[in-house]
Design goal:
With 124 residues, this protein is mainly α. Helix 2 packs antiparallel against helix 3 and helix 2 packs antiparallel against helix 7. The longest helix has 16 residues.
Length: 124
């Protein structure tokens, strides 16, 4: 169940991490390679200096409590807020592609989640 008090203080970085976790978890197995790729993406693409591991853990704890419906609702509600610039959209989509390939195997469920997120981002 989504804890609105926890996610109220979230920012763009949390949202992108959430999207990356959606891809990584779409096959119900988040690998260390995927977590490493998420951390690498966050370090190289975000301007703020942060403890990325702590942020990933924070988002992951909340993410695991969400139902599939809550995940799609969270994406739909926040994509309008954070994906207003074409460069940001392209960066996020490229990051999603990299997360899919991080463990060396791209599964059909990952492709389905990727296409859903991509379509949601592009259709703003």
């Amino acid at each position: 169940m989504q804890d609105n008090d926890k996610i109220t203080g979230w920012d763009f970085n949390h949202f992108v991490t959430y999207l990356y976790l959606c891809i990584a978890d779409s096959d119900f197995n988040i690998t260390d390679d995927e977590i490493d790729e998420i951390e690498s993406k966050l370090q190289s693409s975000l301007l703020e200096s942060r403890d990325y591991k702590a942020m990933i853990e924070e988002v992951l704890r909340e993410f695991k409590q969400h139902t599939d419906y809550e995940k799609t609702a969270f994406i739909n509600d926040n994509v309008k807020k954070y994906c207003t610039d074409d460069d940001i959209k392209k960066k996020i989509i490229k990051g999603l592609e990299d997360i899919m390939a991080a463990d060396g195997v791209i599964k059909s469920v990952e492709i389905i989640m990727y296409r859903y997120i991509k379509k949601t981002i592009e259709n703003l």
